[in-house]
Design a protein that fits this description.
The chain is an alpha+beta fold. Among the domains are: 78 residues, no CATH class; 81 residues, Phosphatidylinositol 3-kinase Catalytic Subunit, Chain A, domain 1 (Ubiquitin-like (UB roll)), CATH 3.10.20.90; 243 residues, Up-down Bundle (Substrate Binding Domain Of Dnak, Chain:A, Domain 2); 59 residues, no CATH class. The strands form seven sheets. A four-stranded antiparallel β-sheet has the order 1-2-4-3. A four-stranded mixed β-sheet has the order 12-11-14-13, sandwiched between helices. Strand 9 and strand 10 form a beta hairpin. It is elongated, with a radius of gyration of 44 Å. The two termini are 87 Å apart. Keywords: ATP-binding, Cytoplasm, Kinase, Nucleotide-binding, Nucleus, Phosphoprotein, Serine/threonine-protein kinase, Transferase. This is Inhibitor of nuclear factor kappa-B kinase subunit alpha.
Length: 691
């Protein structure tokens, strides 16, 4: 056998002391291990020629979906059986057959895997055909998997049966693996590249037939549809069935759809590109736990998407909240394709979660996914003895059902998590608005305190100066009204009732975050899934001939999984309802905070205006006082070295000494008032610091 296959485990290195070459080399240029392939010892001359031909073909190919050949390292560059070795890229994830045989895939690959396989293998085959090479032995064993930067890449290997069309336009040799040969190869007729389109399917009686199975009676049945159950959405199922009908046509001339005369490309590849280019949004309706798949039109808007969702679900566009995985709402200003991540085309990788904003109480859990007919048959009578061959199919569907129940819960839990993240975003916005409100309230209180202190002092000083004959009842009344208005502003700045509601809501949200139901609760279902898989694995190796068994253990697992899902979904929807209730409280609080903040700003502006008006009136009062003094006619009088100015008409009526004393007292008091006013004005902090 080969020293090492491209998809197998790396061999242990041999000791250099024994003179043998190392079996596994990691080249610095290749940055990875090499797979070394050698001929079998019993190869005849024809097969040796085929082997050398494979090496020649491999060395000239360079495509990410075809295993790349490299020069054999010098320490391994020797002949085995008179033929050279073949050094290839080592792919560590095994082949497609291994993946298909995995119990998790007993009813087909996931949608993301199907589309990835279609893209990679289709691209590799297109490359080979463009280079005029027919593979002729394409099967799951000849497709290997490699992990490149966290992404699984499929690569075509084993070109031992490949035919280079440059050697002749017609091919007539009978080569390949019997189970996967195209019909024309059995007839020994000339064939073309369309033999690669046949792939791994059998002869179909009708051009529309893409699936065949054998009944227990031995009768072979055909269908134009993919078998159920599977993991594909309805949109992909429809286009894949059409594509498979094209690829599995019995007529080699019609198979693949022929060549487009305008582009020169096979129509099957054009259709494949259309399938891979579909932008499909998968919407999980959290009110019904059902998935809605919609193919997006080019540049379709979010509003258009919501209208289509409304027609399918009955949830009005105005009540829809579409959340992405991280709890972010779809932006209505962007196209609907924002919810389709580049490179991810399936609902097992990307989902949009639909919530009904008119509801805060969700009534789940909902009815579990329906059982297939054959699984329902053993559930009704778990002790019935059935042939092992038949049980393999039934138990495969049972495993698929158990896995499906777990995945249904996982998707709903992810929807709950998106709701929690959305709630936290709303809560962050609430906290920001609350902080703005508290800050504005504190500034208002500080300004009101300063305003009350200053107006009290102004009223006191105003009363003192009234004895000198300067007063204004109108101004005094206005100041009194300012005091009353300031008291009303104090009431506006009182936000205690809102603050209490916000604190209580924050506490409730923290409790929801700490709740065990905020974390995944599917451990029991995962254990049951593993039990179902192990049970299926033990059944597969059993000889199918004349062997029977019941399904008691498998039915127990199904029943326990249904019960477990029912319990976790009850808790999930109860927790989800609490999340949505808190979110609604935030939605109700936000406009109240906005109103309170606007009122505080209005009160702040009022206080600023009242303070400015009063300051202008004080300076106007001072101006009047100065004008009165300037209006007096000065009369210079000398008395004890002190001079003063007095009105002339006072001299004839009041004794001079008394008049002088009164005037000096008046001037002294008024000067004191003016000096104090100037001193207060100079020592008063600028008002603008409170803005």
């Amino acid at each position: 056998p080969a020293l090492r296959g491209p998809g197998g485990p790396p061999p242990a290195p041999r000791s250099p002391a024994r003179g043998a070459p190392r079996g596994c080399l990691a080249g610095s240029v290749l940055a990875g291990a090499l797979a070394i392939k050698a001929c079998r010892l019993e190869l005849n001359v024809k097969n040796k020629d085929r082997w050398c031909h494979e090496i020649q073909i491999m060395k000239k190919l360079d495509h990410p979906n075809v295993v790349k050949a490299f020069e054999v390292p010098k320490e391994l560059d020797f002949l085995v059986n008179n033929v050279p070795l073949l050094a290839m890229q080592y792919c560590s994830r095994g082949d497609l057959r291994k993946l298909l045989n995995s119990p998790e895939n007993c009813c087909g690959l996931k949608e993301s895997q199907v589309l990835s396989l279609l893209n990679d293998v289709g691209s590799g085959i297109r490359y080979l055909h463009e280079n005029r090479i027919i593979h002729r032995d394409l099967k799951p064993e000849n497709i290997v998997l490699q992990d490149e930067n966290g992404k699984i890449i499929h690569k075509i290997i084993d070109l031992g049966y490949a035919k280079d069309l440059d050697q002749g336009s017609l091919c007539t040799s009978f080569v390949g693996t019997l189970q996967y040969l195209a019909p024309e190869l059995f007839d020994n007729k000339p064939y073309t590249a369309s033999v690669d389109f046949w792939k791994i399917y059998f002869c179909m009686k009708d051009p529309k037939f893409i699936f065949a199975w054998e009944e227990m009676t031995g009768e072979v049945r055909f269908s134009a549809h993919l078998p159920n159950p599977h993991s594909l959405c309805s949109i992909i199922v429809e286009v894949m069935e059409s594509w498979l009908q094209l690829m599995l046509d019995w007529d080699p001339q019609q198979r693949g759809g022929g060549t487009d005369p305008e582009t020169g490309c096979a129509r099957c590849f054009q259709l494949m590109d259309q399938i891979l280019g579909l932008k499909i949004v998968h919407v999980l309706n959290m009110t019904s736990a059902r998935i809605l798949s919609l193919a997006l039109h080019p540049e379709e808007s979010v509003h258009s998407l919501q209208s289509r969702i409304e027609s399918e679900t009955g949830t009005s566009a105005g009540s829809q909240e579409l959340l992405l995985e991280m709890g972010i709402c779809l932006d209505p200003r962007k196209p609907a394709s924002q919810c389709v991540i580049d490179g991810v085309r399936s609902w097992d990788s990307c989902m949009v979660y639909l919530f009904d904003k008119s509801k805060t109480i969700y009534d789940g859990p909902f009815a579990s996914r329906s059982l297939s007919d054959c699984v329902n048959y053993i559930v009704q009578d778990s002790e019935i003895q059935l042939p092992i061959l038949q049980l393999r199919k039934i138990w495969a569907e049972a495993v698929h059902y158990v896995i499906g129940l777990k995945e249904d819960y996982s998707r709903l839990f992810q929807g709950q998590r998106a709701a929690m993240l959305s709630l936290l975003r709303y809560n962050a916005n609430l906290t920001k608005m609350k902080n703005n409100m508290v800050s504005a309230s504190q500034q208002l209180k500080a300004k009101l305190k300063f305003f009350h202190q200053s107006i009290s002092l102004d009223l006191e000083r105003y009363s003192d100066q009234m004895t000198y004959g300067i007063s204004s009842e109108k101004m005094l009344k206005a100041w009194k009204e300012m005091e009353e208005k300031a008291l009303q502003c104090e009431q506006t700045g009182d936000i205690g009732f809102l603050d209490e509601q916000i604190v209580a809501l924050h506490t409730e949200i923290v409790e929801l975050q700490r709740s065990p139901h905020a974390r995944r609760q599917g451990d029991l279902m995962e254990n049951l899934e593993q039990r179902a898989i192990e049970l299926y694995k033990r059944l597969k190796p059993r000889a199918p001939d004349h062997s029977y068994s019941d399904s008691t253990e498998m039915v127990k697992i199904i029943a326990q999984t249904v019960q477990s899902q029912d319990w976790v979904l009850k808790e999930l929807f109860r927790h989800l309802s609490k999340l949505l209730g808190c979110k609604q409280k935030i939605i109700d609080l936000l406009p109240k905070i906005e109103v309170a903040l606007n009122k505080i700003k209005e009160a702040d502006n009022s206080v600023m205006q009242m303070q400015g008006k009063r300051q202008r009136e004080i300076w106007h009062l001072l101006k009047i006082a100065c004008s009165v003094m300037d209006a007096c006619v000065p009369v210079l009088c000398q008395f004890g070295g002190i001079s003063t100015g007095l009105p002339l008409f006072f001299l004839g009526r009041i004794p001079f000494a008394h008049l002088l004393e009164e005037n000096l007292s008046y001037l002294d008091s008024f000067s004191t008032v003016i000096q104090e006013a100037k001193h207060d004005q100079n020592n008063t902090n600028p008002w603008t610091f409170l803005k």
